[in-house]
Amino acid sequence: MENLFTKGKFFLLLFIAANLFGQSVKRLNDPAIVAQHKRMTFESWGDWRPYPKYFLGVQTNFAYATVWGMWAPKINREYKDGDDIRPLKPTGEQNLRLAQLKFQEEEAKKIKAASDTIYKRSVQDFAHWTSATVDADPLWLLYYKRMLKPITEFPDTPQNFVEWRLKDQQTYETLSTTGTLRRLQEELDLIKEKYSMSRTMDMPRGKRFVMYHETLIRWRKFIQELKKHNDKTTLLLDYKNILNSHLPTALPAQSTSTSDKQIVQEVMLKYKHKY
Q1: Can you give the pLDDT of all 275 residues of the chain as single tens digits?
Q2: H helix runs in the chain, sequence order
Q3: How many domains are contained in the chain?
Q4: Closest alpha carbon to 45 in 80, 84, 91
Q5: Parallel, antiparallel, or unpaired: how do β-strands 54-55 and 58-59 relate?
Q6: Nearest to 39 by CA among 89, 73, 94
Q7: Which of 26, 135, 140, 215 has a Cα at 20 to 30 A from 13?
Q8: Residue 183 belongs to some domain of the structure
Q9: Does some domain include residue 212?
């Protein structure tokens, strides 16, 4: 009998435990919590549950009085009567943070693009600065390489009339005697030195082409001056040859006159009937 009673108690406890733990958990649906969730999202600001109840003008809802009413904490009343502070409203703090984050991402993209542009420009500027890449510059290949080529072809120190590109040896000797070739050699050295500096020194691309242009202008003036001296000397030699051919005995080989005045008188007496 005692065993049956013990077994009965065991099965009773087992049945009670199965009922307690086997039941499904019911979903909690508190209207006040739901209203709070709505206030904290974008839906609406309000729905202050629990609602007040009055009987003969007296508040009879104890829950409202302790949450929002006269017995509620001051912070609850300030919250209820205060501004709309929903973080997910159109102008809420959370949306403002998200908008600011998006703005910062766009600014970061712009800064990165600008820094990449500055880096690429720096690389390009370095490529134009260094003298190792001057031969690949398009403007050099299209124009200045061809225009400055005569400078490299001209001898550094010309030794005869052919290298100086003069007409003949007599012209070369005349310019050498008068000191003109020495001055032209100094100008040639300056032109070649400036050309060499523009090709070998590291400098900005714009400054390099300014040096190219200055060198070209100076070279053209040098060639023009050389041609001018060449033509002028040739003309003087031609005049001298013509004069010698027309007046072969204009003056005696040895004059016994003692003054220029006597020499002029002798010549005038000799040729006064011929001209």
Answers
A1: 555 456 555 656 665 655 555 555 567 788 888 888 888 887 888 888 888 888 888 888 888 888 888 888 999 888 888 888 888 888 888 889 999 999 999 999 999 988 888 888 777 777 677 888 888 888 899 999 999 999 999 999 999 888 888 888 888 888 888 888 899 999 999 999 999 999 999 888 888 999 999 999 999 999 998 888 877 776 666 666 666 665 555 444 444 545 777 777 777 776 666 55
A2: 2-22, 31-40, 62-67, 74-81, 93-129, 138-139, 145-147, 149-153, 169-177, 180-200, 205-246, 260-271
A3: 2
A4: 84
A5: antiparallel
A6: 89
A7: 26
A8: yes
A9: yes
φ/ψ of 55, rounded to 5, equals -135, 110
Sign of CA dihedral 238, 240, 242, 245: negative
Instruction: Give the helix/strand (H/E) hosting 58.
Output: strand 58-59
Amino acid identity for residue 70 in this structure: M
Residue 142 is given by DSSP the state: I
Task: Name the token pair of 13.
Answer: 């406890």
In this structure, are 56 and 140 located in the same domain?
Answer: no
3-class DSSP string for 88-105: CCCCCHHHHHHHHHHHHH
In sequence order, what are the residues at sequence separation of 6 or more whose Cβ sits closer than 8 angstroms to the Cβ of residue 40? 86, 87, 88
Residue-range definition of the domain harbouring residue 134: 130-245
Asked if residue 96 is part of any domain, the answer here is: no
Structure tokens at 270: 């000799």
CA atoms of 5 and 14, how far apart (whole Å): 14
Instruction: Give the span between the Cα atoms of 62 and 6, in whole angstroms.
Output: 49
